[in-house]
Amino acid sequence: MTVHLHRVVVRHAGRTLVDVADVHLEPGRAVTVVGESGSGKSLLAHAALGTLPAGLAVHGAMSIDGVPHDVGDQAGRRPLWGRTLALLPQEPVLALDPTMRVRDVVAEGAPTFARDRRAARRAALERLAGLGVAHAAGAYPHQLSGGMAQRVAFAAATIGEAPVLVADEPSKGLDVAARDDLAALLRRHVEGGGVLLTITHDLDLARALGGDVLVMREAEVLERGPVEQVLTTPTHPYTARLLAAEPARWAKAWMRDGGPPEGSPLLVHAEQVTRTLGGRRLFTGLDLDLRAGDRVALTGPSGSGKTTLGRVLLRRHPVDSGRVTHHDLARRRGRAPVQQLHQDPTQSFPAFVPLRAALGDAVRRHGVAPGRLEELLGTMRLDPGLLERRPGGVSGGELQRLAIIRAMLLHPALLLADEPTSRLDLLTQEETLDALMGQVEQQGTALLLVTHDTSLAHAVADREVVLPGGVTTPTAVLAGR
Amino acid sequence: MSTGAPAGTATTPPDVTDGDRTDQDGAAPAALPPVTDGGVGRAVLLLLVRRALQAVGVVVAVTTACFAIMHTLPGDAAYRIAAGRYGYDFVTAASAEAVRAELGLDRPPWQQLVGWWGDAARLQLGTSLVTGADVRHEVLHGLGHTLQLAGLALLLASVLGIAAGAAAAHRPGGAVDRLVGTWVVLARSLPPFVVGLLLVVLLAVQAGLLPVAGSGTPAHAVLPALTLAVGLSGLVARVTRDAVVHVRSSEYVRFAQTRGLGAGAVLRRHVLRNVGTTLVAYLGVQALVLVEGVIVVESVFAWPGIGHTLVHGVFWRDVPVIQGTAIALALAVVAVNTVVDVATLLLDPRPRETAVVA
Fold this sequence. Notes:
The structure holds 2 protein chains of 2 kinds.
Chain A: E1 3-12, E2 15-25, E3 30-34, H1 41-49, E4 57-64, E5 67-70, E6 85-88, H2 92-95, H3 102-107, H4 117-130, H5 146-158, E7 164-168, H6 176-191, E8 195-200, H7 203-209, E9 212-217, E10 220-226, H8 227-230, H9 237-244, E11 266-277, E12 280-291, E13 295-299, H10 306-313, E14 321-326, E15 338-341, H11 355-365, H12 372-379, H13 396-408, E16 414-418, H14 426-443, E17 446-450, H15 454-460, E18 463-466, H16 474-478
Parallel strand pairs in A: 3-8, 3-9, 6-7, 7-8, 13-17, 13-18, 15-16, 16-17
Antiparallel strand pairs in A: 1-2, 1-4, 4-5, 9-10, 11-12, 11-14
Chain B: E1 16-17, H1 40-72, H2 77-86, H3 93-103, H4 109-121, H5 135-170, H6 175-189, H7 192-206, H8 218-248, H9 251-258, H10 263-293, H11 295-300, H12 306-315, H13 319-347, H14 354-357
């Protein structure tokens, strides 16, 4: 099975979103499209599948094993879904019906499902067993960890034996271990003679998949070629920029080797801290001192308790035993020395309130000096006009920078940044963290960075606290039943 | 209930290090115990026990309140009961004393209250002070009629509302959607007595299809039920539409489509059940509103339901009748809530509250 795409163009309201001359997908060779958000890489994949939303003008031709198809006729490929073309969705937890057991979701995609349900169910169990998640067959999606949900979604997507698999940002929200796991599954599909098209902004995933890579920006393919060539010796300056945006290659003024200056005052003293969650021990006997200007990363796989530890150190979560003492971090009028930055800024701003009002509340409550807000907007290269919009009207990166401004306006002594860039693409992540760390450096703020990205932790932090995670099985979720 | 032991490895204290370490998460899935949903049956049982306790509490609260009303009413209860039995003109001090002795009204109030609770526990609700009829019989009679009416109304509203809502959701913003939207506003803005009178004028008086009011034949139930259903169907349509639009735009429906499931299979296997979780809870609330809110409609159509019984009980200060209807209505609330909770628990496996899971 081979797939060729010729001159695929997607337009909306006069803007060209995708304009790609040709893409060849061959069995046994992975093709990965990388690029920032809004580059059109996802639209290209969905145009090929026929899953674009209505309202977009789509043109182009494609052939599947020599049979021509009109890309503009999106409904035309519907009969191929599941049997010839399959989609591995983003965020598998959301892609599984919350009211249905995992084995039933997988079974309904089996080719025999309509004729023989029992055979379909057997096939589903076999496939789940082959992926090492047989024990989850009777579970519901909310009982699965992120990595398990990814395997279940993979089983559901591939049980129809479709030779062409399209994976749309499949590593979103996965920690390193789960991502490596996913890469192995996708490679297995390719090695079995399958066709694979992966869309991602995760260059490590592209490297792990091998094959060819296409670099997209502003609707066009800028560079293409074998992964090892394009991602080591890029010819296009944009690809070089993309590579330089990986945290492992950062060279920023605020990066440093040592810690804060000797004799910096102690802010947080944690002694023999233990905490359990849902019958599972997250950490025991933890000792940690935080001084002014410290930069500490809390890392570990999903569900290992990184965020809980951060909030325990902020004394916003109770401990089971041990003690957390704060020094001079008390909240007073005009002074809020402990701030937190959340993973998803859309949830930390009220959806229907203009941003100026949302930030203005913080300014008034804490008596922030006039002009300070405008100054920070300038430092972060944000147009003050953005403030008239609502949170939904600005990009994810812009909103996270506004959240940084909201936190740093108050000159915090301690900032907890909880996966602040895990939803952003590489370039936006670099821009956002650069903005954040510029302020942290300038104000001498102590930073607790929660992340599952070890290279990011290395780039930003002086020290790391690694939570091993233990067993993140649903039995822990169900403890007590 | 015992807390399951945390599975797997002993927790090691995390070190503060500079080095990176890789985790072996998911390396040995074969050794993991199977994931099961465990206690759905148990959760249902717990829920039933809790609701049963609630029912007892409700009955105690209602009977106590009625007892208090009885004792704070002006005048002597023995005289009132005697008057109810023999007529006002034939009440003498002697007959009042006879009643007092017979019913134990000379006992201390707390003993009377315990006796009152005992009667309520055996569902002996006494006799009407006015008609002398058995209150249990009166209440059951009224409740039966009301449940008939409410049930029929709910059925009509569900059929009309779900059909209209699903049609509107087919193309959000389309002509059908706007038409249904108008219907929702109209149906909600007309009070039931206006709708009732309109229907009487149109269907009974002008067209002569149905009886104007009263009871006795199934045809008599249609107009009052339709009156209730009109207002309700608008709300059901609205809720159905939003739920269907929401579910159909969900990731799991899109994933089902790209896995090759046909439109019918997606509807049966994914849309219905997920819309059902929203709708069942909503219809439950509406059923309660119906049972308690039918008084106006029962009055318009002279329907001998429980609202009718209650209104007359209040009007004649007939405390046993008030108590009987109050208990019946309170228990109906508990019963409907129980049905909704069990249905939701069976439809939606996600734990809804910690009390059910723990």
